[in-house]
Structure formats: structure tokens, C-alpha cells
């Protein structure tokens, strides 16, 4: 029998605001085969903040070896449509991911920092494992924890029980969520991604990053996101997944990794992450 709390959560998902209209238009255009850089520049130019971000990224990508980008069309051509899609989807959720989550004892910016670190590592892992779309892995890593945005308020209502399950009963974070509410943050994130009409491959990466073998169509991407989150997890704050740095055995098996092999990979990926974070 469905609990009242689960019913409220499902209703909250159903009432989610759609993505901003400008984001939806750009993402729809990116999925059209005949879309040109000029058309994208016209759509992106309607959002001054987004246009500035893309110009900045394009000039940063040149590392000083190419002429400065002064127009959106040039910036789009330099970055490519796949990277543009990554930036657009990241911009759509960045404000939400940056807020504090008291139910998880996360301060402002902490979830966003983990999201960006996971995305960076996921892209690196995609290259390492020969995954054909590293940009897809980046987006999957960036958005894998969006379900926490909705679950936070429900965990806060029963925080002491949540804390007891994690600290004393040694439950994994997602197991404690599921026991208390009926869904975990990965499942909620998958429902949110469906509501926002994300591509099925991203819906699966978000929904199954804690259970990669359930991703029948894209288990490698779900496994890459699982490993990326484990590698990107720093010292736990409050109750924030004290076992989050442990990869799922299904992810290791899917990517043909032993535990020892993962530890070696973790060190390589972590060094890459630190280098990327350095000024």
C-alpha cells in the first residue's frame, strides 16, 4: 500500500515546472538534423547569461592557441553541438543544484560541486573505456543526483530515523531513502528526467546509477556514472552517503574491472580531477 509520503512525492514530481522555454527550444533545435550554428546562435542570443557562458567556454577551450571568439556562431562551431548541449542542460539545473539541502546536511554549493566533479570524472572514464559519447557521460554525471532536490524535504521530516539507519544500521544512503519514503533519489531523478523529456539514455543513467544491471539499454553509461560518483565523493559532511566512495559491484562487472583495478583507476581519475580543478 502506498504511503501518504510517497503519494505526496509523486504528486510533487507531477507538478514540476517544465524546463525554461528558452532551454527547451534550444534542446529541441539541437535534436534536429538540419539545425545550423546560425540558428543556434539566434536562439542562445536571446539569453544574455547563457550567451556569455558559451563565449567564455569557447575562448577557454582554445587555450590561447586560436583567435578569440567574438560571435556566438564562431563559439558554437568551436565547441561543437554536443558540448553546447552539455552546457545548456547544465545551465538549466545549475541554480537548483547549487542550493543547500538540509535533509542531507549539504550546504549551498556542495551538491553542485559533487555534480561537477562527477561529470568531469564521468567524461574521463568515458574516454578511458571507449564509450562513444563522452558528452553524454558528462551530462549523466552532472545530473545523477537531481532526485535529491525533491527528496530533501521528506528526509528532513524524519531526519533522526534517517540518521539512525545510516549511522547505526549501516544502510546505504539510497537504501535508507527507499525504506523511509518508498523511492530513492536515483528513482526520483529518473522520474524527474522523464517529466522534463530528457533523452532515454540520460533517464536510464540517472535512474540506475545505483543499480547498473537494471539499465537494459545503457548499462555501461549507468556504470560509468556510478564509478564517477564514487571517485568524486570527498569526505562526508553530515549524513551525506558515508559509503558513497564504494562502487557498485555491478558497475565493476559491467566495465570488466576488478576491485584492485578500480583502485588504480580511482587514483588516475582523481589526479585528473585535481588537475582540472587547479587554476
Ordered list of secondary-structure elements with their pairings:
Blueprint: H1 4-14, H2 21-30, H3 37-44, H4 48-61, H5 72-79, H6 81-97, H7 110-129, H8 134-143, H9 148-157, H10 159-167, H11 173-181, H12 185-195, H13 200-207, H14 219-232, H15 249-254, H16 259-277
Helix pairs in contact: 2-3, 2-6, 3-5, 4-5, 6-8, 7-8, 7-14, 7-16, 8-13, 8-14, 10-11, 12-13, 13-14
Give a written overview of the molecule.
With 279 residues, the chain is an all-alpha fold. The protein folds into 2 domains: 17-97, no CATH class; 98-279, Hypothetical protein af1432. It has helices spanning 4-14, 21-30, 37-44, 48-61, 72-79, 81-97, 110-129, 134-143, 148-157, 159-167, 173-181, 185-195, 200-207, 219-232, 249-254, 259-277. It is globular, with a radius of gyration of 19 Å. The N and C termini lie far apart (53 Å). The model has no long low-confidence stretch (mean pLDDT 87).
Structure, briefly:
The protein is built from 16 helices and no strands. It is an all-alpha fold.
Structural class assignment:
mainly alpha
Total number of distinct structural domains:
2
Q: Rg, please? A: 19 Å
Helicity range of the residues? Answer: 55-70%
Given the C-alpha coordinates, what overall shape results?
globular
Distance between the first and last residues' Cα = 53 Å
CATH topology of the largest domain: Hypothetical protein af1432
